[in-house]
Specification:
Layout lengths: L8 E12 L2 E13 L4 E6 L5 H9 L6 E6 L2 E2 L6 H7 E4 L13 H12 L1 H19 L16 H13 L5 E5 L7 H18 L2 E6 L2 H7 L2 E6 L2 E7 H6 L4 H8 L6 H4 L1 H6 L6
Parallel strand pairs: 3-8, 3-9, 6-7, 7-8
Antiparallel strand pairs: 1-2, 1-4, 4-5, 9-10
């Protein structure tokens, strides 16, 4: 982790309410959250806890009802500086296919942020070279530039989504359930890629998930959300091994136990006389 004292992101008192059919629904309630340079913070919670809404507010896809958001110390609470926010924080979505235009070739998918924000800096030839470099950085053959998303696997598409997110050299990636739509074997390769990229670039991750197995293998710290509040936060291993909040205990209880003898103690007692 970087020794920089200013967090990449600092959220204070962030709240979000919706008004619908004459009724107000509160999704977030005074959330405080920091992510330091080079660290991975897991934001976990059951469906409807508010974690995805918080992630969308952070990247500018939704606006907070109140509160303060600082990125590298700059107040970017208001949606006025979209370009500056994009240079600091990018998002990788859960479904890699849905996050891409199916009519665009891979080269155009990855080049889109470069053309929007770095065209003058790179020039046309530089954009082409940067697309190749980005694809190589996520272990993809640059030859995939001519293909369409539907011609690729889910794992390949998620790597392309990561490459696109890295195009502006952000300091923070918001990863919204980035492996949940992938097969288990593919999940492992994507997680390995994320670890390698973080070691190489120092990028910070806010990893939004409900999968505690994935979280425990990747995160430095964890924040557990329920009812629009962060109920518990701290070092990942400590929180998962000694949960203090009921929300954390519920999440841990929902994790399937792979060993049936641990899941059902009566099986263990029945089998003590023989190895089978």
């Amino acid at each position: 982790m970087s020794e920089t004292t200013t967090p990449v992101v600092s959220m204070r008192g962030v709240a979000k309410s919706f008004r619908q059919h004459g009724r107000t629904s509160t999704v977030l309630r005074d959330v405080d959250l920091d992510v330091a340079a080079g660290e991975t913070v897991a934001l976990v919670g059951e469906s409807g806890s508010g974690k995805t809404t918080l992630a969308r507010i952070l990247v500018g896809l939704a606006q907070a009802s109140r509160g303060e958001i600082r990125l590298l110390g700059e107040d970017l609470t208001a949606p006025r500086d979209v370009a500056r926010r994009a240079q600091v924080v990018q998002m990788v979505f859960q479904d890699p296919f849905a996050s891409m235009n199916p009519r665009m070739r891979v080269r155009d998918v990855v080049a889109e942020p470069l053309l929007t924000h770095r065209r003058r800096e790179l020039g046309s030839r530089g954009v082409v070279q940067e697309v190749s470099r980005l694809l190589e950085s996520v272990d993809l053959d640059p030859q995939v530039v001519e293909r369409f998303p539907h011609e690729l696997s889910g794992g390949q598409c998620q790597r392309i989504a990561v490459a696109r997110a890295l195009a502006l050299e952000p300091r923070l990636l918001v990863l919204d359930e980035p492996t949940s739509a992938l097969d288990v074997s593919v999940q492992a390769t994507v997680l390995d890629l994320l670890r390698e990229l973080q070691e190489r670039t120092g990028v910070a991750y806010l990893f939004v998930s409900h999968d505690l197995a994935v979280v425990s293998s990747l995160a430095d710290r964890i924040a557990v959300m329920a009812d629009g509040l962060i109920q518990e936060a701290g070092e990942c291993r400590r929180v998962l091994s000694s949960p203090q909040a009921e929300a954390t205990r519920r999440l841990l209880a929902s994790v399937a136990e792979p060993d049936p003898r641990r899941a059902n103690p009566s099986l263990a007692r029945a089998g003590t006389g023989s190895d089978g």
